Amino acid sequence: MKIDHIAIVVKDLDQALDLYTKTLGFRIVYRETIADQSVEAVGLEAGDSIIELLRPLAEDSPIAKFRGDAATKLHHTAYRVDDLQGELQKLKDRGVRLIDEAPRKGAHGNLIAFLHPESTGGVLIELCQKR
Q1: pTM to 2 decimals?
Q2: Which residues are within 8 A (CB) of 20 and not within 5 positions of it... i.e. 6 or more apart?
Q3: How far is CA 15 from CA 12, 72, 100, in A?
Q4: Cβ pair 17, 42 in contact under 8 A
Q5: Nearest-angstrom CA–CA distance, 110 and 104
Q6: Which helix (H) or strand (E) holds 87?
Q7: How many CB atoms sit inside 10 A of residue 45's CB?
Q8: Do residues 86 and 41 touch, judged by C-beta distance below 8 A?
Q9: Which fold has domain 2-129?
Q10: Domain residue limits, the chain
């Protein structure tokens, strides 16, 4: 597995973009709204990986509640896999608790699935497969 992206929930997307693009010099590679997850996602090129900024579309959404009063908060680490369904089955067989039992659509058409933090040392992990 390779790191695909690191996701950070932000309260002020414009301010975060100024930091990452103007101050740090990262380049935007995608920007999209993912309505079923109630977020706007912006991907920034970081070498072979992506820093993904997530802005909740509603302050009562789960991701906004996760961020709480913080201006930004690390949300999850995503790892790229070639066969997401196969990886999920292997992990389930090894006793890993899954949030998603089956792949679902994520940003820019990727298939994604999350592993429960109770099985991953308290860290939310996303697995993603490029389409």
Answers
A1: 0.89
A2: 26, 44, 51, 53
A3: 5, 11, 32
A4: yes
A5: 8
A6: helix 84-93
A7: 15
A8: no
A9: 2,3-Dihydroxybiphenyl 1,2-Dioxygenase; domain 1 (3.10.180)
A10: 2-129
